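Lay summary. Proteins are chains of building blocks that fold into shapes, and those shapes determine what they do. In this project we predict the shape from the chain. Here is one chain we studied, written as its sequence of building blocks.
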Amino acid sequence: MKESERKRKRADYRFGNYLTQLRRAAGMTQALLAWKLGITDKAVSKWENGRSRPSLPQLQKLALLYNLPIEELLAAQKENDGMQITKIVITGGPCAGKTTGMGRIQKEFVKLGYKVLFVPETATELITGGVAPWTLVTNEEYQKCQVSLQKRKEEIFEQAAGKMGAEKVLIVCDRGVMDNRAYMNDLEFENVMRALGLHEVEERDQYDAVFHLTTAAKGALQAYTLSNNGARTETPEEAIAVDDRLIAAWTGHPHFRVIDNSTSFEEKMSRLVAEIASFLGEPVPLEIERKFLIRYPDLAALEEKPNCEKVEIIQTYLRSSGDTEVRVRQRGKDGKYMYYRTKKTRVSETERTEIERRISQEEYVGYLMEADPARRPIRKTRYCLTENNCYYEIDIYPEWKKQAILEVELRTTDQEIIFPQDIKVIREVTADKTYGNHSLAAKMPEED
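And here is the predicted shape, written in a compact code that computers can read:
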């Protein structure tokens, strides 16, 4: 698809969402609106899914129905031109890698110029807050709550995306409306859709693309765990059954992809990113990194670059045992921070699983009480720089006054590295474990 066509498609999607909100505010179904306009409900569905736009006479009829000036509809249509807003779903069975996948999506698509927004998983929010199928009178009543909250959250994120002034916005939904069908029988699902005035196909196809990560219980049983999600209770057999029901619920979507466990976990995450990049028409990011020891850079010059972002990081390793490595990280700037917990476990000689999730500040402070006394917290200032079609991370450590570390991500193994201007390389340390974070936390090497 040409870039101009892709931009138009994203603009149509956003305008379609605007039309959907108007219709719902008027209390009409797609079928009722189609009857009032003298067209088919399929035509209305295409407008709202961004696959076509109303003609001027049809916009005039819509303005009359919604008691709006025609100028307002025309302005809304024009406002969306030149802006890409894409809404995708990341779904999957229990312990499939969704949390880690979200982190990877954030990392890779920010580099490609996207503003990435995440709609949190609604079920986990409700269940951890005390609203669950077993706390309400019936599962059906719970599902009404969950679907209603899911849709409202998505609407808020979509509205916010349109006000960000970004050229490209990627809205990533941690599960979508159709995920709920996997936890209902057919009658319950029909009742919930009817009670909320929703239609199955409309709800399924409102998303631009859906990516399903297969549960570790299918083909990677050694990595299946319940420890990283307090709302998860499924046995491996139950996880497989849920996974199958989720696939069935989304089957029929025009862009539905299943990412299985036929490769290592790291490759699985790379395949997820590659599938999304391919759908968006972007170059597929590759995780080829090389690390260099460099002379201490001119920080003032770096900070003046418009394509450079400064980030403050504190990384603390926690007590762990065996082949497991756990760390927490504070990341941000100007007193505004996000917090993450990462757990890496070796499952074979060549494979490690990595589970990373965002945590609250309170959780972060609590985890610090479990800090490994043999390893000090790593404090560093990171300069993220996009230049020469490469993405560089320059880490400045307070212990060093003459040197720093630069990492560069490459597209191919034979890609020529063009270092940023004024960067002086001492030597490559890609394979030198002395300069890995885990080793740096134990002992900081002397400066060259």
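What the prediction tells us: Confidence is low (pLDDT under 50) at residues 1-11.
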